[in-house]
Amino acid sequence: MKIIFEGSKYETSFLETYLNRRFFSPANNPFYSIVDYVGYYYNSQINDPVIILPKVFIYENGLAFGKYSPQDILSPNAITKEKFKKDGSDKLLFSISTWIYQAIIQFRKRQKETSIIENEEINNIISNFGDSDNTELDIILSLIKFHKENQQLFTHVSKLNHMGRKVAWNKTVSKYTPYLCDNTPIYSNVAAKKKTVDFNEELIVLFYSVLNYIRITFGFNIVLNQNYDLIKGREFERLLVNGTRKLKVIKNRYFTDKFVALWKLLYTFFEHSETNKKSNKIQEEVLLIKSFNIVFEDMIDDLIGDKNSDIPRYFSDQLDGKRVDHLYLYQSLIMNDKIYFVGDSKYYKPGNSIGKHSVEKQYTYARNIIQYNINLFNKDNLPIGIRYRDPLTEGYNITPNFFICAFVDPNFDFFKDGLNEEKGSNTTEFQYHFEGRLFDRDTLLIQRYNINFLFVLYAYTSRSSLMKASFKNKARKQFRDRMIDFFNVNYCFYTVTPISMTLEDFVDKYFRQLNGKMYRSSSMSDKLIVAIEKTTSSSFSIEDCICESFLLS
């Protein structure tokens, strides 16, 4: 397996050895080219798959994983290769490669299910196999998964077969009652006869020999049972061109579904190998995407977004042609009303920052969302529980807005999300029309967050809906809490209850003084909220009312 990095510069003649020319483009130097895609490519002419990893793995100093140049990883010399394997980077690379591959597969499935994009051509997805086709990497991952999920079965068979006897399965099944382990029957007592040819063991030897070949050829970390004499070297090379013939000889001689499934997996592996070796044509297997940022956006949206079909389509695919990455309803920063949180995913090389153009677009997303909801409000068609403007005070609810960027955990931990607000100068964007008017529609906040790309990969391809739901709840609460923290630091909040006059009369009397600084949630009938910027005043008092300070929560 060869590893190439998206956005990295390689010698053109070097890339031509591994990739079709349509998958890389010329760099400034006429002798160098840049790889434009992410994903999986197999060419039988070199008999080796190529994985193109996302640019997020390239560090600021131009090194992949902070240690090696992309060229070293693709074709390490003897010294580098020894060190590369010694520190475990080779196993890490192959592990990440399979996650990337499965993420693109998952994206294709979600694209069809949710109509994320109208067609593949828009998104620059290149694939020459359908949903039912198996690539070499598909087959390898299935074999490794089977090995991982059936350790107890192999251990049990191994113990029986090395007791010097052959199990009579027909008599065992009719005479003894098994116990179930992962839906597989395990017999503590067996009917035995003198050992002859053991087809179960023969199949296992073939299986372990294939796993050994995968371990050596592709670098996967597979621990094999040492009780079998494996087929290696030239003998295994011969299997790669006639393995299906050997499997046909022992077909239909297994008494459990597990061994039937294993036989089919091995047959698929050898059939694929024979097709590639016997074909005179250059066989390609391609699953590549040019705009991997779209995949990253979908990965994040799967973790934090809202699949609620009640959200109008034009809220996300906005009428001015802009598309919002993430949009979901959640508890407002003010009391118990709900409001839309607006998010945008950013997929950069490490060291790159969010530009002014992206910031301005994000403000536009939020303004559009506000206006769309006000349009519904004006038509008395805004859903119950969603509140953008209070008709009495003419104050606007706060619209939460955020960026979320990927980073790679320095310890390459797949299980820590690393979700944190970006700290430092110029990391919180705060824009307003009138100073000190928090409840004005033009007062907008954008916060920035980072997330561990490896966790995102793991979660996106995971089947655990419970894990995803847990992270979604955590992330949404964290976004809200951090925004509340910002406003509690920069504003003093008061509940205001009028004395000797109605709330309507109080608003009329002090409207000019409190315009944009007062707001009323839907649960308030006789009071309202006033927000005073701390740089303006450290306290607030006004006649005709009772003022009580409080913190947003």
Please, could you describe this protein's structure?
The chain has 553 residues and is an alpha+beta fold. The protein is 41% helix and 19% strand. Strands 13, 14, 15, 16, 17 and 18 form a 6-stranded mixed β-sheet that branches. Strands 1-6-5-12-7 form a 5-stranded mixed β-sheet. A 4-stranded antiparallel β-sheet has the order 20-21-19-22. β20 and β21 form a beta hairpin. α4 packs across α15 and α6 packs antiparallel against α11. The longest helix has 26 residues. It is elongated.
> Which regions contain 5 or more consecutive residues with pLDDT less than 50?
76-80, 115-123
How would you describe the shape?
Answer: elongated
Bin the helical content: 40-55%
| Proportion of strand residues | 15-25%
SS elements, strand count: 22
How many strands, which pairing sense, and closed or not: the largest β-sheet?
6 strands, mixed
Radius of gyration: 31 Å
Termini gap: 52 Å
Whole-number mean pLDDT = 82
Q: How would you classify the helix and strand content by structural class?
A: alpha+beta
Count the DSSP helices: 17
